[in-house]
């Protein structure tokens, strides 16, 4: 079914690469008018030209910049239909070796950025009486991994915050959901020999996903097909967190 987002105004943060780019491409293909936001100006401008969308340089850890992103989009287009708070990054280190700087940056971007985006979009959407917010979490938020305590903690916080926001905003016409991707072959995967083969073996489905497979989940949550879906965490991870595999499998 084409045109599921026809003429809808959509913001995607972290839109210059990985899942953010895949979301922007899919939303555009479905008829949306997309604004991508990213801290990387050069890459963001290049991607925007390639897929035919707008670009606004934004540091999502700065609430003033996030507010300006949302208010500027509304000023240009008259409304905001979908806010995809997707910007984030992976940090890996043993808990006791995690630096204050690494902790603060991960919390500021992975949780703070999604909170600021949810708040800014929520204010606009409540005024409109309609809108959808989709926040990118991770399957690590519900099934943490060794060496990723802070990352997993921020993603768990995103899931909980989004559920609470969904309860508050549901009577006001605004839906809030999260998507929890599993392993993706994106820019976040280190360029190490054999890493893709290893990641493939770890997935019960047999391979690590590409970002476009995750973007379809975001499209569903943002579309009118999900009009009664709110407060939901959609896990898209090829059964990676469904349970334990048999020993020796």
TrEMBL record:
Coiled coil: none annotated. CDD domains: SDR_c. GO terms for molecular function: oxidoreductase activity. It is an enzyme of class 1 (oxidoreductase). SUPFAM superfamilies: NAD(P)-binding Rossmann-fold domains. The keyword Transmembrane helix does not apply. InterPro entries: NAD(P)-bd_dom_sf, Sc_DH/Rdtase_CS, SDR_fam. Keywords: Lipid metabolism, NAD, Oxidoreductase, Steroid metabolism. Its EC number is 1.1.1.-. Belongs to the short-chain dehydrogenases/reductases (SDR) family. This is SDR family NAD(P)-dependent oxidoreductase. It comes from Streptomyces chlorus.
């Amino acid at each position: 079914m084409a045109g599921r987002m026809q003429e809808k105004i959509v913001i995607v943060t972290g839109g210059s690469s990985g899942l953010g780019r895949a979301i922007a491409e899919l939303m555009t293909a479905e008829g949306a008018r997309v604004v991508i936001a990213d801290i990387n100006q050069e890459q963001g401008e290049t991607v925007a030209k390639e897929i035919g969308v707008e670009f606004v340089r934004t540091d999502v850890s700065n609430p003033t910049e996030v507010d300006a992103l949302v208010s500027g989009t509304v000023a240009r287009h008259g409304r905001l239909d979908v806010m995809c708070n997707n910007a984030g990054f992976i940090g890996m280190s043993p808990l006791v070796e995690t630096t204050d700087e690494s902790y603060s940056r991960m919390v500021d971007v992975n949780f703070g950025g999604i909170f600021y985006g949810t708040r800014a979009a929520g204010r606009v959407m409540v005024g409109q009486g309609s809108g959808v917010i989709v926040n990118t979490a991770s399957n690590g938020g519900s099934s943490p991994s060794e060496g990723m305590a802070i990352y997993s903690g921020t993603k768990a916080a995103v899931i909980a915050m989004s559920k609470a926001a969904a309860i508050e905003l549901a009577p006001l016409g605004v839906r809030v959901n999260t998507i929890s991707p599993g392993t993706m072959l994106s820019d976040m995967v280190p360029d190490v020999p054999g890493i893709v083969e290893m990641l493939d073996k770890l997935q019960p489905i047999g391979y690590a996903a590409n970002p476009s497979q995750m973007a379809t989940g975001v499209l569903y949550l943002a579309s009118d097909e999900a009009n009664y879906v709110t407060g939901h965490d959609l896990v898209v991870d090829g059964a990676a967190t469904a349970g334990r595999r048999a020993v020796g499998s």
